[in-house]
Design a protein that fits this description.
Length: 222
């Protein structure tokens, strides 16, 4: 309910925060930590639907417990040095862009065709590893070539794009090609975890076959 008097609202710096640990998770000190789609912390791994939150500040073993039986302190808002994948390394061109979670100490340069979740933004690449921003990347972009079928008058058609980090209800923006089809309105939204749908709507009185073109989808992370 709305305040009716002054209130000393509790505050934290937010650099070290406790997170409820997922059932069966064993998080080592120094591990790259993620939260699952249900909001529980676990070690980083190759999987989709994970959100990178930072580095474990303690060792917590919840292998025999249920979701939330243990909590782990996670350090955020700093740069952390994680190992670089040897098979899919993060390169210098990735600086300023997201890298991807391979395991709880290693990041990779690509999402491996949609099988890895994004880690933080790459700050620097060195011989001994990758410096990763201590929070999830704010913007995640994907460019996809979309070929909509012919759309009837006043009709619409949907296509989907795999975008790691997309969540239902999240903020999405759509970049259009330089010459989009006249008479077509385009919309984009996160229709499922890691999936963005793009809708083309024909606002004319005749059928239109939209031009095949590249569209950029950007997920905006808080």
């Amino acid at each position: 309910m709305p305040l009716t008097q002054d209130r000393m609202t509790a505050a934290r710096q937010g650099h070290v925060m406790p997170y409820a640990v997922a059932a069966g998770a064993n998080i080592f000190l120094g591990a790259l930590v993620v939260v699952t789609a249900t909001g529980f912390a676990q070690p980083g791994s190759t999987a989709t639907g994970l959100t990178y939150i930072g580095r474990a500040d303690q060792h917590v073993d919840n292998t025999g417990g249920a979701d939330g039986d243990e909590t782990v302190l996670v350090r955020r808002k700093q740069a952390f040095l994680f190992a670089n994948s040897t098979a899919d390394p993060v390169g210098q061109p990735s600086v300023g862009k997201p890298c991807y979670i391979l395991d709880d100490e290693t990041v990779a340069g690509t999402d491996a065709t949609g099988t890895r979740s994004p880690a933080g933004t790459v700050l620097a690449v060195e011989s001994n590893g990758v410096w990763v921003d201590g929070g999830a990347a704010k913007d995640l972009s994907v460019v996809a070539n979309l070929d909509f079928p012919s759309i009837a008058a006043s009709g619409s058609g949907d296509l989907t794009i795999a975008v790691q980090g997309a969540s239902v209800g999240g903020a999405v923006s759509l970049g259009l090609p330089s010459a989009p089809s006249a008479g077509i309105i385009y919309q984009a939204w996160a229709s499922a975890i890691d999936i963005v749908s793009v809708r083309a709507t024909n606002i004319t009185a005749g059928a239109i076959d939209p031009v095949v073109a590249d569209f950029r989808v950007t997920i905006h992370k808080a």
